[in-house]
Write a structure and sequence with these properties.
The structure is a homodimer of 194-residue chains. Chain A is of the alpha/beta class and 194 residues long. The first copy, chain A, is 29% helix and 34% strand. Chain A is built from five helices and eleven strands. In chain A, helix 4 links the parallel strand 8 and strand 9.
Chain lengths: 194, 194
C-alpha cells in the first residue's frame, strides 16, 4: 500500500537491533485517517471472503483493528496479555514470545467470544518472527473457528515469520513488507503486485 | 446516552466487589457500531470546543478513542503502561492505581506527542475512583497542553472519582453513570439531562 510505505519512509526511524520506530503514526500516536485507508485496502484484499469477527491483540493492534472493523461491519475481539479479575470463566490461552518487549507472556480470549461458527480475520500492526500471529491462530483453532487470514500493517520480511506462515497455508496480507533496513541506508520494501 | 444504558442493562453483569462486567461489548469484545454512536454523542456534547488531540490509556480505552477520533478528525495518543524498548527519549510519566487490576503502575507518553499547543480530550471506557483520569490529566498539565475535558463511556457514580474531578473544574462527560449496582437488584443509573 503506497500511502503506508510513503509514510514509513517519511516518519519511520530505523534503530539498532532491527527496531523500526513508527510511533508517530502507528503505535503510540495514531493517525486515524491513515488507518481508514488501511481499512479500505484490507477490505479490497479480502473482498468476497466471509468474515464475521476481527481478532487482534492488545495494545496497539486494537487501534487498527477497530478502524478496519468498520469496513467489514463486524465486532472486534482482542486477546489480553494478563489475567485481570474482570476475565472470569473459561479462556483460550496461548504463549507468545515478544520481539519488542523481549519476554514471554500468555495471551487469552474468553471462550464466550470465539466459537466454531466464527470466520476470523486477524489484524495486527507488526509481523516479525510471527509469534503473536501463531499464538492468535492457535486460539482460533482451539475455538474450532475458521481462520480466514491475517491483515498486517508492517511486516519485517527479513525476519521470516510471514513467509513461514504463508508456507503452512495461512493467508497473510501485509500492507508494507520491509525487506531490508539499516540505520544508515534506510528501508527497502519488498516488491509486490499490490 | 440511552442506547448505552440499554446495552448495559441487557448485557452488563454485576459481580461481587463492585465489578461491572461489560466485556461482551465494551472491553474485550468490542461493538464498533455502538462505539460510533458514542462518538456522535461525544461530538455533540463537546460541540464548539477546539480539540486537536485525543488522549487515552491502553488497552481498552484505545478502542473507543479511535472510533471517537473519527468524529473530531484528530489523532489519538495513548499512554503506555510499561516501558518498552520502542519508547525512546523523554516521556511524561504519572503513577496510577488500578481498581480493576488492584495494583499500581506507571503510565507514560512520549514528549514528542504532547505539546503546549495541544487542546486535549481524554477518552476512556471506565471512570471509577478517577485515578487513571487524574494520571492522564497530570500528563496533559506536565506537557503544558490544555485539557478540554474527558469523555467516559461508563462512570461508577458511587465511587466518586467523577464528582471529585468535576468539583476541581474538570469537564467530565459520562455517557452512562451507574449510581447504584447490586448483584441481585441490578443497576440504577443517575438521572441526567442528557
Amino acid at each position: 500500500m503506497e500511502a503506508l510505505k510513503q509514510r514509513i519512509r517519511k516518519d519511520g526511524i530505523v534503530k539498532e537491533g532491527n527496531v523500526l520506530k513508527v510511533d508517530s503514526f502507528l503505535n503510540h500516536q495514531l493517525d486515524i485517517q491513515l488507518f481508514e485507508q488501511m481499512g479500505e485496502e484490507f477490505k479490497r484484499r479480502f473482498e468476497g471472503e466471509e468474515i464475521n469477527k476481527i481478532l487482534t491483540i492488545e495494545a496497539s493492534g486494537i487501534a487498527i483493528a477497530c478502524i478496519v472493523a468498520r469496513y467489514f461491519n463486524v465486532p472486534v475481539v482482542f486477546a489480553k496479555k494478563s489475567k485481570t479479575k474482570n476475565i472470569a470463566g473459561d479462556v483460550y490461552t496461548s504463549r507468545v514470545e515478544s520481539f519488542t518487549h523481549g519476554k514471554v507472556y500468555d495471551i487469552m480470549v474468553s471462550k464466550d467470544f470465539l466459537n466454531p461458527e466464527d470466520k476470523v480475520l486477524i489484524i495486527d500492526d507488526f509481523l516479525a518472527n510471527g509469534k503473536a500471529l501463531i499464538g492468535l491462530s492457535q486460539i482460533v483453532e482451539d475455538a474450532g473457528a475458521t481462520l480466514v487470514g491475517a491483515g498486517i500493517a508492517i511486516e519485517k520480511g527479513f525476519q521470516r515469520g510471514g513467509d513461514l506462515l504463508r508456507e503452512i497455508g495461512v493467508r497473510v496480507e501485509s500492507l508494507a513488507i520491509v525487506e531490508e533496513m539499516d540505520v544508515e541506508k534506510g528501508i527497502v520494501f519488498r516488491e509486490t503486485n499490490q
